[in-house]
Amino acid sequence: MFGTQRTVAFPMTMGIGFRLGTRRESKNSSASALGDFNALLAATVADPGRAPRYYDTEPYLTQDHDDLEYQLAAGTVGGQQLANRRLTEALLHGGYMVDVAAHVGAPWQPTVGHWEDGRGRGDPHPWGSRRIGLILATRPVAPAVKHYGVHVSAASNEASDHRAIFADVDQPTSLSGSHRRTPHESSV
């Protein structure tokens, strides 16, 4: 099955998607991190002729409710109300990892904020629709990722407050060499 494409579906738990070697063994180690990060990603995208922008827009600008302080960057509560992206900035620091959705230029889709149990009951997210279920890949893995998506169906919406995320990955022939940025990625 060398060079074939397959869909890799990721449940919403933290973990390693696949690992080929370790960082100690090679500067081109291959790994993916995935899960419910409960934080917005700091990945940026570059639109032609425009300054880089966050792939995930600011969802909290006009919100006012309890516990919002845990989602916001320090010093912005009651003011700008900017999302706390520190965790994901650390994961993307130095370009070691990329956000798979931004990397392939996938249309933005929320992974939370839809929750109803199919009978009109449930606990809608007070923070609204957000993308906090994420797939990150190291630079050597990034060229192998061909597609990213969020599974949306009546059954999945009823089953969980987090939607499943998936990626199509071409393995293993694309997992060598260095990574070139796609037109959808920004170096900022």
Secondary structure layout plus pairing:
Layout: E1 4-10, E2 15-20, E3 30-36, E4 44-45, E5 53-54, H1 86-92, E6 97-99, H2 100-104, E7 133-138, E8 145-150, H3 154-159, E9 165-171
Antiparallel strand pairs: 1-9, 2-3, 3-7, 4-5, 6-7, 8-9
Short descriptors:
mainly beta; 188 residues; three-stranded antiparallel beta sheet
Kindly report the oligomeric state of this protein.
Answer: single chain
User: What's the story with the biggest beta sheet?
Assistant: 4 strands, antiparallel
- Mean pLDDT value: 76
Strand content: 15-25%
Domains, number: 1
Q: Helix- and strand-based class?
A: mainly beta
Helix content: under 10%
Overview of the structural elements:
With 188 residues, the chain is mostly beta strands. It has one domain (4-49, 85-171). 10% of the residues lie in helices and 24% in strands. A four-stranded antiparallel beta sheet has the order 2-3-7-6. A hairpin with a 7-residue loop joins strand 4 and strand 5 (53-54). The model is unreliable at 9-27 and 173-179 (pLDDT under 50).
